[in-house]
């Protein structure tokens, strides 16, 4: 509606400067250099047939932001380009973005199983996903067997009712790296789906789809956004699987906000640069810690001493091993808590993957859902600390840890 109207004030305030301007903008000879934020929950139509066309999949115009929004599609376009071709080459890679990593993971799992089915999952996982698999899916008649993908032959856990195999590219918090290509092969031989949480690695370190996995899942709260300012999730998979999971996403309503999508798209521009420096700094810190007399054990796949080093080197890009490492300090729980208190620059932050180096305490935070027995069986020590190595100068990170270690 134009500014010159004979309508009353309240009507004029509502019916000017609105979405109709988009028609005018669409016809202009210039476009915004960056993609705008489409902060709208719904889209306006002049007629009914265009709405039918969307529901009948004859048009990919937008209708309602819980179903799709230009900003969620912008992120999906970047992520699907970043993830590469699935090894099957049957379909193009597609992507979906979610309101959290848990939303992406749970929606994907629910799309793959029904009551009576069985899942084989890694015994070392982000604690929230472990909690969901150990304590929540059984409520819906789905059973789970946890296996050690590095030590056990997971195929022994496969049953006639198994539908899904689930693991992490770099496990939280032990930084173990399973052989994704080998697991994919065995899973597919048995007609099983194989989902991989690629949060710690990101497509700048590993691309599970190119190694044969059916879906790469992400907490975009972590490296993909990389600045500790949004909560989000994502997945990439072949477009057939994406279409299947999309239906569940729309039903369960796990969509991110357009603003969070915009921030995520902006962060993805620098993902490659950030992962290069996170990886370089983490290797320096891991080497420093490994040589320190007060350190019992360092968990980092970039270290030659890591049991995962060979597998990681073979499937990771450009000699990168990511920015996450864990450490067992001599003296266990008591000394670990002291170390947290003594560090100045490095804060205790129960998340990861921001620009700043941070430390977390898995048993007290992310892995609280594990019982003492499950922690022991998985090899997660009570006093284990997990560092998210940031983008500062590596000398300053090491100096802060070194000074704190001297004081414990
Ligand atoms: N996957 C991994 C490896 C994680 O570390 C986390 C959270 O820490 C999640 C998934 C869950 O992500 P979100 O907190 O965004 O729901």
Helices and strands, with pairings:
Elements: H1 9-14, H2 21-26, H3 49-55, H4 70-83, E1 93-98, H5 101-112, E2 118-122, H6 127-136, E3 143-147, E4 162-168, H7 180-189, E5 193-197, E6 215-219, E7 233-238, H8 239-252, H9 258-268, H10 271-290, E8 295-299, H11 309-315, E9 324-329, H12 332-342, E10 347-348, E11 358-360, H13 372-378, E12 385-388, H14 394-407
Parallel strand pairs: 2-3, 2-4, 4-5, 5-6, 10-11
Antiparallel strand pairs: 1-7, 6-7, 8-9, 9-12, 11-12
Helix pairs in contact: 4-9, 5-8, 12-14
The protein binds pyridoxal-5'-phosphate.
The site of pyridoxal-5'-phosphate has 15 residues, from helix 5.
Give an overview in words.
This protein has 408 residues and is of the alpha/beta class. It has 2 domains: 65-268, Aspartate Aminotransferase, domain 2 (3-Layer(aba) Sandwich); 271-406, Aspartate Aminotransferase, domain 1. The protein contains 14 helices and 12 strands. The strands form 2 sheets. It has a 7-stranded mixed sheet, sandwiched between helices. Strands 8-9-12-11-10 form a 5-stranded mixed sheet. Strand 4, helix 7 and strand 5 form a beta-alpha-beta unit. Helix 4 (70-83) runs parallel beside helix 9, helix 5 (101-112) packs across helix 8 and helix 12 (332-342) crosses helix 14. The model has no long low-confidence stretch (mean pLDDT 95). Pyridoxal-5'-phosphate binds at residues 100-102, 126, 128, 168, 172, 197, 199-200, 219, 221, 231, 233, 366.
